[in-house]
Every structure is written in C-alpha cells, then in structure tokens.
Specification:
By secondary structure, this protein is α/β, with parallel strands linked by helices. The chain has a single domain, classed as Amidase signature (AS) domain (Amidase signature (AS) enzymes, Alpha-Beta Complex). It is built from 14 helices and eleven strands. Strand 10 and strand 11 form a beta hairpin. The chain starts with 10 loop residues before the first helix and ends in an 11-residue tail after the last helix.
C-alpha cells in the first residue's frame, strides 16, 4: 500500500496511486466517507451521500483493476455532483424544497461519462435554489458552511456551493458544478479552489436542471489546475442529445499545459475597474501579475468598450429564461421558494420579447467589440471577486458578487479561477484568467504556470 493520504492528495495523485495498485479505491472512498461523517454535520455540503453504493462501486473497481480490467486512468477515483445533475432513480431537487420528491428518470450525460470512466459518485451537493444566486445561500435547504472560517458562517459562493465546500474541506478530491454567471468560479474563489468555466458547447448540459439555456455550462471544481484539466477532459465532447455541442471538436489541454507563459501577452484590467475592490484582493492581483511577468509573460494595458458592471446589468437573458423554466412555480404563492430567488424568477415576467431579443442582439455586438479590443491578447486577468468571503449576516442579496465573472458567460468566453493569496484573517483570494471562447487549454496553461510557481493552492482550511 502507498503512504499517500487519500484525503489531502490531489485527484491526479489519487488516480496514479490507484492505477499502480498502490492505493485501493476502497481505501480512497472510505477515507472520503470518514471525512464526510466527521465534518458534514457542521458543513452541510451534501444533499445525499451514497455510502453503500459508493463502497460497492469501490469494491468492484478494486477487483477490476487488480484483474487488469481498468476502464481508464480515473477508474476508482471519487467525485461529487452538484444537485442539478440527474442520476436515474435519485432525487434531484435543484436546490429547491419544492422539488424534494423529484426523482430523476435519466442520468445526465456528464454523470454518465464519469461513471463510464470508472469514477465513483459519492454524493450530491447543495446548490443555490435553481442555481440562481452567487453568494451560495439557500433559504429553505440551508447554506453550506465555508470551511475557511470555523467560527463565523461565511459565504461559500454560489451557485455550486456544496461542491465548493466538499472539495475545499477534503470530503471529495473534486466535483462538478455549473456556471451561468460565475457559479463555478465564485465558490472556487470563496473556498480557495481552482474552477474552470467552459465555453458553452464544450460540455453537454443534457440531464442538468436548466437556469438559462443560453448561458449554462457545467465545469470542474478542483484543488489544482492539473486536476481541473483532467476532469474537464473527462466530461467534455460532443453529445447528440445536446445541440450546442455539435461541431465543437475536443481540445485536450495536455500538449500545451506545461509550456509556461513566456511570450504570452496578458492584459491587465482597466484601472477604473479597481474601484470598489478590497485592498487585499488588489494586492494579491497585482502580485500575481508581477509573478507572471517574471515568468516571461508580457503584461499589457487595454481599453475595454464597456464596464464589467454593464454585463451584470444585462440580466434579461437569465431572467427571461429562468421564468420560462420555473415561472409557474414562482407564481404559486404556496410553493416553498426562497424570497430572493422567487423575486429573481418573477423579474423574468417583466422582460418583454422586444427586450429579450434586443439583449441578445446587443450581446452579439458586444462579443465583436470585446474580440476587437483583445486582438493579439492571450488572456485578460482580473480578480475573481471584489472581496473574500463575507459573513452570511452581511450578505445583501440585491448585490451580486458576479461583477468580474458575468461577462465571461455573456460573451461566450472561458475562464479559470484559482487562489492567489489570503487575507490577514486567512480567507482565500482569487485570480481569474479569461480567454477567448474554446481556448480552455490556454487558460489552463497560464494557470498551471502560476501554480507551479506558487503554493496558495496547497493550503488547507482549518477543519
């Protein structure tokens, strides 16, 4: 047996140890289940833990691997899924108490791909109701506890709140979330993780409860760039059940992952965007840019044709599409919906066809303007959030934490969030690397160069 610590090891190390038979999948799963038993009463990351089934799957994986019948390099590695992702026969609440009895009749393509590669789903994780919120709060089902502060309940980030907490607290090596306005990157930022927002069409959304069919994209939350790349490759690719994936060719990140940043041109966000950002977040951001420059990147200044806040304000697409999906439920006063989420959904009823189509038209023009402004630039770098995780008692649901993330969804870009420092009180800070659509390999390459030169991503929460 290996001396690897299954709880704290990155997923890539777990996979290598299992593949070499130095670690049993049973030991890996048992370690995660033990960690869940220890921490879940306080952290509340999971909607359901599949203890018996996960252990049975681990025993089967162990036998297959020992017999020389591993189905792939990730066989036997545990994973968690956001509770928007259907597993046939399992409950998918989508974060809503109104759907406590919603039993899935299908298995989402993302989950099917992971299971086909031998990965072991150990549980479903909490989400903001219908994935409609960035702080990670859930009025009726409860808000997961951010593990970086053991005394004060703080925002875990949303909407993939449970996945962020589970991975940060070492209850799982990695997990799947979804991102419509920042819902992979925000929990990654607040929980000290590496999260990849993929371009729409890279990963199938079939079998995932929708929020905005125009903007939704599933993606990995992990502890390292290498892990994010592995999980991204595992779930990406065309799916005949999802028309947005047609014609999107697979693009493995491995050929360029370790090429470094020498010769790349990376853009600094405009100075005006520094307004309203916490001083420690800006200090970490500036230090990250300085490090990337020392690694050989050229840091350049650019002028953007719009403010990031304009993209946050363009919420008509999400509002209208969310109302289409859940409007009837939100209109029912007897339905058990959170007040803030109900208000967001009902706002979609006020979006006229003219406004909706006008927003789509303006979006198309903004995509062209952004592409022109970033001509010859490999990535735009920003903080992921304005500040570190705030106390739940200070959350203002009317103020969205997605100022730096929403534009990536609106403009069909991809983005990587990763730790770039900590506050004086020990809360994670985060850097965002935004690349053009379908250039996930570049975002991962830049992130890998940064993580190879830093150790922020190796720090552990005090749980």
């Amino acid at each position: 047996m290996s001396d690897i610590d299954p709880v704290n090891a990155p997923a890539a190390d777990l996979a290598r140890a299992i593949r070499s038979r130095a670690l049993s999948p049973v030991d890996a799963v048992d370690a995660m289940l033990g960690r869940i038993e220890q921490l879940e009463p306080k952290l509340q990351a999971f909607t359901e833990v599949f203890r018996e089934d996960a252990r049975l799957a681990a025993e089967g994986a162990d036998r297959s691997i020992r017999a020389g019948h591993a189905v792939g390099p990730l066989h036997g590695v545990p994973v968690v899924l956001k509770d928007l992702i259907d597993l046939e026969g399992r409950i998918t609440m989508g974060g809503s108490a109104a759907h406590r009895a919603r039993r899935a009749e299908r298995t989402a393509t993302v989950a099917r791909r992971l299971i086909a590669q031998g990965m072991i789903v150990i549980g479903k994780t909490h989400t903001v109701e219908f994935a409609y919120g960035g702080w990670g709060t859930n009025q009726h089902l409860g808000t997961p506890w951010n593990p970086w502060d053991s005394q004060t309940p703080r925002t875990p980030g949303g909407s993939s709140s449970g996945t962020g907490v589970a991975v940060a607290a070492r209850m799982a090596p990695w997990g799947i979330g979804t991102d419509t306005g920042g819902s992979v990157r925000l929990p990654s930022a607040f929980c000290g993780l590496t999260g990849l927002k993929v371009t729409v069409g890279r990963v199938s959304t079939w079998g995932i409860v929708p929020l905005s069919t125009t903007l939704d994209s599933p993606g990995p939350l992990a502890r390292t760039v290498e892990d994010a790349a592995l999980l991204y490759e595992a779930i990406s690719g065309p799916d005949p059940l999802d028309p947005t994936t047609r014609g999107v060719l697979p693009d493995a990140p491995w050929p360029t992952l370790n090429r470094g940043v020498r010769g790349l041109r990376l853009a600094r966000m405009p100075a005006i965007e520094r307004e309203g950002v916490a001083a420690d977040m800006l200090d970490a951001y500036d230090a990250a840019l300085d490090l990337l420059a020392r690694l050989g990147a050229e840091i350049v200044d650019i002028a953007l044709p719009f403010r990031f806040s304009e993209c946050v304000a363009m919420s008509g697409i999400t509002n209208a599409e969310a109302y289409f999906v859940n409007g009837a439920l939100a209109e029912d006063p007897a339905a058990q919906l959170g007040d803030a989420v109900r208000a967001r959904i009902l706002a979609g009823a006020e979006v006229s066809a003219q406004e909706y189509l006008g927003t789509l038209h303006r979006r198309a023009a903004m995509k062209l303007q952004y592409a022109a402004a970033l001509e010859g630039i490999d990535a735009l770098l920003t903080p992921t959030t304005e500040c570190a995780a705030v106390a739940l008692s200070e959350v203002d649901e009317a103020h969205l934490p997605s100022r730096f993330t929403r534009f990536g969804n609106l403009l069909d870009l991809c983005g990587l969030a990763l730790p770039d420092g900590f506050t004086a009180s020990g809360l994670p800070l985060s850097l965002q690397i935004v690349c053009r659509g379908y250039d996930e390999a570049m975002a991962l390459r830049i992130g890998q160069a940064y993580q190879r030169a830093t150790d922020w991503h190796l720090r552990r929460p005090p749980v």
